[in-house]
Amino acid sequence: MIPYLQLQITGLGIIVNVASFDGIGRTPAMVISVALLAAFVLASGVRAVAWISILKDLLMLVAAVSIGIGIPYIHYGGIGSMFAALAQARPTHLTMPGATTNLGHSPRFFSPRSAATCGPTPLESPSPRRAPTRCAATQS
Predict the structure, then answer these.
(1) What is the pLDDT of residues 38-75, one digit of tens each?
(2) What does the pLDDT read at residue 114?
(3) Which domain holds residue 49?
Protein backbone atom coordinates (compact mmCIF):
# COMPACT_ATOMS: atom_id res chain seq x y z
CA MET A 1 0.00 0.00 0.00
CA ILE A 2 2.83 2.39 0.83
CA PRO A 3 4.57 2.08 -2.59
CA TYR A 4 1.22 2.70 -4.32
CA LEU A 5 0.64 5.82 -2.21
CA GLN A 6 4.19 6.98 -2.88
CA LEU A 7 3.69 6.58 -6.63
CA GLN A 8 0.46 8.58 -6.50
CA ILE A 9 2.04 11.40 -4.49
CA THR A 10 5.11 11.50 -6.74
CA GLY A 11 2.88 11.57 -9.81
CA LEU A 12 0.85 14.41 -8.32
CA GLY A 13 4.06 16.35 -7.63
CA ILE A 14 5.18 15.90 -11.24
CA ILE A 15 1.76 16.91 -12.61
CA VAL A 16 1.60 20.06 -10.45
CA ASN A 17 5.18 20.93 -11.41
CA VAL A 18 4.49 20.56 -15.14
CA ALA A 19 1.03 22.18 -15.02
CA SER A 20 2.43 25.22 -13.19
CA PHE A 21 5.32 25.52 -15.70
CA ASP A 22 7.85 25.03 -12.88
CA GLY A 23 6.11 27.66 -10.76
CA ILE A 24 5.52 25.09 -7.99
CA GLY A 25 8.27 22.60 -7.30
CA ARG A 26 7.68 18.87 -7.00
CA THR A 27 8.63 18.66 -3.33
CA PRO A 28 6.31 21.46 -2.10
CA ALA A 29 3.46 20.01 -4.17
CA MET A 30 4.05 16.58 -2.64
CA VAL A 31 4.23 17.98 0.91
CA ILE A 32 1.00 19.95 0.40
CA SER A 33 -0.77 16.91 -1.07
CA VAL A 34 0.30 14.70 1.87
CA ALA A 35 -0.88 17.35 4.33
CA LEU A 36 -4.24 17.66 2.55
CA LEU A 37 -4.63 13.87 2.37
CA ALA A 38 -3.83 13.43 6.06
CA ALA A 39 -6.16 16.28 7.05
CA PHE A 40 -8.97 14.84 4.94
CA VAL A 41 -8.62 11.35 6.42
CA LEU A 42 -8.24 12.68 10.00
CA ALA A 43 -11.19 15.06 9.71
CA SER A 44 -13.64 12.76 8.01
CA GLY A 45 -12.31 9.28 8.56
CA VAL A 46 -12.25 6.28 6.30
CA ARG A 47 -15.98 6.56 5.63
CA ALA A 48 -15.44 9.74 3.63
CA VAL A 49 -12.73 8.04 1.62
CA ALA A 50 -15.22 5.29 0.80
CA TRP A 51 -17.84 7.86 -0.25
CA ILE A 52 -15.30 9.58 -2.48
CA SER A 53 -14.53 6.19 -4.02
CA ILE A 54 -18.25 5.60 -4.65
CA LEU A 55 -18.56 9.05 -6.23
CA LYS A 56 -15.54 8.34 -8.44
CA ASP A 57 -16.98 4.99 -9.52
CA LEU A 58 -20.33 6.59 -10.37
CA LEU A 59 -18.58 9.28 -12.41
CA MET A 60 -16.58 6.59 -14.25
CA LEU A 61 -19.80 4.68 -14.98
CA VAL A 62 -21.51 7.81 -16.30
CA ALA A 63 -18.46 8.58 -18.45
CA ALA A 64 -18.30 5.04 -19.86
CA VAL A 65 -22.01 4.93 -20.68
CA SER A 66 -22.06 8.43 -22.17
CA ILE A 67 -19.03 7.68 -24.33
CA GLY A 68 -20.43 4.28 -25.32
CA ILE A 69 -23.67 5.90 -26.44
CA GLY A 70 -22.37 9.32 -27.49
CA ILE A 71 -19.61 8.25 -29.88
CA PRO A 72 -21.90 6.04 -32.01
CA TYR A 73 -24.53 8.80 -32.20
CA ILE A 74 -22.01 11.50 -33.07
CA HIS A 75 -20.15 9.53 -35.75
CA TYR A 76 -22.80 7.13 -37.08
CA GLY A 77 -26.19 8.51 -36.06
CA GLY A 78 -26.91 5.65 -33.66
CA ILE A 79 -25.74 2.33 -32.29
CA GLY A 80 -27.55 0.30 -34.96
CA SER A 81 -26.01 2.41 -37.72
CA MET A 82 -22.57 1.88 -36.21
CA PHE A 83 -23.00 -1.92 -36.22
CA ALA A 84 -24.39 -1.80 -39.76
CA ALA A 85 -21.33 0.16 -40.91
CA LEU A 86 -19.07 -2.29 -39.07
CA ALA A 87 -20.83 -5.28 -40.62
CA GLN A 88 -20.35 -3.74 -44.06
CA ALA A 89 -16.72 -2.68 -43.57
CA ARG A 90 -15.38 -5.63 -41.51
CA PRO A 91 -17.94 -8.40 -41.00
CA THR A 92 -15.37 -10.67 -39.35
CA HIS A 93 -15.17 -8.27 -36.38
CA LEU A 94 -18.71 -9.28 -35.44
CA THR A 95 -17.99 -13.03 -35.47
CA MET A 96 -16.57 -14.93 -32.51
CA PRO A 97 -13.39 -16.88 -33.25
CA GLY A 98 -14.30 -20.49 -34.02
CA ALA A 99 -17.97 -19.58 -34.27
CA THR A 100 -20.34 -22.54 -34.59
CA THR A 101 -24.06 -22.95 -34.07
CA ASN A 102 -23.44 -23.75 -30.40
CA LEU A 103 -20.58 -21.21 -29.99
CA GLY A 104 -18.02 -23.99 -29.80
CA HIS A 105 -19.41 -25.52 -26.61
CA SER A 106 -21.09 -28.82 -26.07
CA PRO A 107 -24.75 -28.45 -24.98
CA ARG A 108 -24.10 -30.67 -21.98
CA PHE A 109 -21.48 -28.20 -20.75
CA PHE A 110 -24.28 -25.92 -19.57
CA SER A 111 -26.82 -28.59 -18.62
CA PRO A 112 -27.98 -29.05 -15.01
CA ARG A 113 -26.73 -32.63 -15.11
CA SER A 114 -23.19 -31.50 -15.82
CA ALA A 115 -23.40 -28.98 -12.99
CA ALA A 116 -24.64 -31.70 -10.65
CA THR A 117 -21.96 -34.20 -11.66
CA CYS A 118 -18.97 -31.89 -11.41
CA GLY A 119 -16.88 -33.01 -8.48
CA PRO A 120 -16.83 -36.25 -6.54
CA THR A 121 -19.73 -38.63 -6.94
CA PRO A 122 -19.61 -40.95 -3.94
CA LEU A 123 -22.66 -42.97 -4.99
CA GLU A 124 -20.88 -44.15 -8.12
CA SER A 125 -17.51 -44.54 -6.45
CA PRO A 126 -15.96 -48.01 -6.46
CA SER A 127 -14.02 -47.12 -3.31
CA PRO A 128 -15.24 -44.85 -0.50
CA ARG A 129 -11.73 -43.48 -0.07
CA ARG A 130 -11.32 -42.22 -3.61
CA ALA A 131 -14.33 -40.83 -5.41
CA PRO A 132 -13.93 -40.23 -9.14
CA THR A 133 -14.13 -36.67 -10.35
CA ARG A 134 -16.40 -36.18 -13.33
CA CYS A 135 -17.11 -32.88 -15.00
CA ALA A 136 -18.54 -32.29 -18.45
CA ALA A 137 -16.09 -29.43 -18.94
CA THR A 138 -13.15 -31.85 -18.79
CA GLN A 139 -14.71 -34.67 -20.79
CA SER A 140 -14.11 -34.82 -24.51
Answers:
(1) 888 888 887 887 888 899 999 999 999 999 999 999 99
(2) 52
(3) 2-94
In 3D space, the residue among 114, 122, 118 whose CA is nearest the CA of residue 134 turns out to be: 118
Read off the pTM: 0.39
State the total domains in the chain: 1
In a domain, 124, yes or no: no
CB contact set of 134 (below 8 Å; sequence gap of 6+): 117, 118, 119, 121
Contacts 24+ apart (CB under 8 A), 110-116: 111/136
What are the angstrom distances between the C-alpha of 16 and each of 9, 34, 40, 56? 11, 13, 19, 21
